């Protein structure tokens, strides 16, 4: 299955989306796609089938988001914690990812036609090299697309992301590019893996688990959170419609909260701007040489 599914909306769902589009629609939605294995158990199919259905659901959900005019989606595809699962399952998830990335590259015209930019966020040093190379290629060929953004959090955890940001900041203080007085929330935000994105407006977690599992912890302070009991492979367009409806009900409170916190947002000065510019250049070079990053076992 492709990364962008065919439109599967019923006329009633299309109508509901049209109605909701007259109100505030989130610009950026983050999703914790949970419940693949429980779905597989329930449906009495192999675990791999649950994960494959999970990928298909991602493609379908991304298409519904485009219908809604939600132009940025960030999904939790594989956490650093997931490396602790059985070798069989990790290998199966890596194989699935490899297949899907290859598919993306084979269908690059489709990504270009829809103008979708794919970004992988996470600690790539933990990812097998063959997959890393495919990820880099997917990001490279789509990097100028700007009609929609699909961020795939892979080998990701918030604590790792924040640790990495702190390391970059400490290094630049040591190098004398900035001083400790320059370090504030805004600067840390700009050093996260998500530096290219605005914070999500809505976070959806499926499967009935009511926790964040170390996903976008820094970025979701002012995000509307929607938990649903449905297992990810069973998520349907109505679930997305309810989530957006829930977001619209929370909207005014959230805007007020965000406005109140805007007072604390600092501006970058020339020194910090220079540091950020240097950091992003370094990351670009690292990304271009992604196949040579030593893998941490
Ligand atoms: C959570 O369900 C799901 C995952 C750990 C994997 C999610 C991956 C995909 C949907 C495929 C995406 C692939 C790409 C290339 C983007 P679970 O395994 O934790 O199931 P459980 O909660 O029922 O145990
Ligand atoms: Mg789970």
Automatic annotation (TrEMBL):
Catalytic activity from the UniProt record: n isopentenyl diphosphate + (2E,6E)-farnesyl diphosphate = a di-trans,poly-cis-polyprenyl diphosphate + n diphosphate
Gene3D superfamilies: Decaprenyl diphosphate synthase-like
GO cellular component: dehydrodolichyl diphosphate synthase complex; endoplasmic reticulum membrane
InterPro entries listed in its UniProt record: UPP_synth-like, UPP_synth-like_CS, UPP_synth-like_sf
GO MF annotations in UniProt: ditrans,polycis-polyprenyl diphosphate synthase [(2E,6E)-farnesyl diphosphate specific] activity
NCBIfam families reported for this sequence: uppS (TIGR00055)
Family according to the record: Belongs to the UPP synthase family.
Record-given protein name: Alkyl transferase
Species of the source: Ceratosolen solmsi marchali
Lineage: Eukaryota, Metazoa, Ecdysozoa, Arthropoda, Hexapoda
């Amino acid at each position: 299955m492709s990364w962008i599914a065919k439109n599967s909306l019923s006329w009633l769902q299309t109508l509901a989306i049209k109605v909701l589009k007259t109100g505030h629609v989130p610009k950026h939605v983050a999703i914790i796609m949970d419940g693949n294995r429980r779905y597989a158990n329930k449906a009495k199919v192999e675990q791999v089938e649950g994960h494959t259905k999970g990928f298909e659901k991602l493609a379908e959900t991304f298409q519904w988001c485009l219908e809604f005019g939600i132009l940025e989606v960030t999904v939790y595809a594989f956490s650093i914690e997931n490396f602790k699962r059985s070798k069989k399952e990790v290998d199966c998830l890596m194989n699935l990812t490899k297949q899907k990335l290859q598919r993306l590259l084979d269908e690059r015209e489709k990504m270009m036609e829809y103008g979708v930019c794919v970004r992988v966020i996470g600690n790539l040093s933990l990812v097998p090299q063959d997959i890393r190379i495919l990820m880099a290629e997917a990001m490279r060929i789509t990097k100028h697309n700007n009609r929609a953004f699909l961020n795939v959090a892979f080998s990701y955890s918030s604590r790792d992301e924040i640790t990495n940001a702190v390391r970059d900041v400490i290094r630049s203080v040591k190098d004398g590019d900035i001083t400790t007085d320059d370090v504030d929330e805004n600067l840390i935000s700009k050093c996260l893996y998500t530096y290219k994105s605005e914070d999500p407006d809505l976070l959806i977690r499926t499967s009935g688990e009511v926790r964040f599992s170390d996903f976008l912890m820094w970025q979701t302070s002012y995000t509307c959170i929607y938990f649903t009991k449905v297992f990810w492979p069973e998520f349907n367009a109505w679930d997305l419609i309810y989530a957006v409806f829930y977001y619209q009900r929370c909207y005014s409170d959230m805007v007020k909260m965000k406005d109140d916190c805007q007072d604390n947002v600092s501006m970058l000065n020339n020194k910090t701007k220079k540091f950020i510019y240097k950091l992003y250049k370094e990351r670009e070079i690292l990304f271009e040489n992604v196949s040579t990053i030593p893998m941490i076992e």
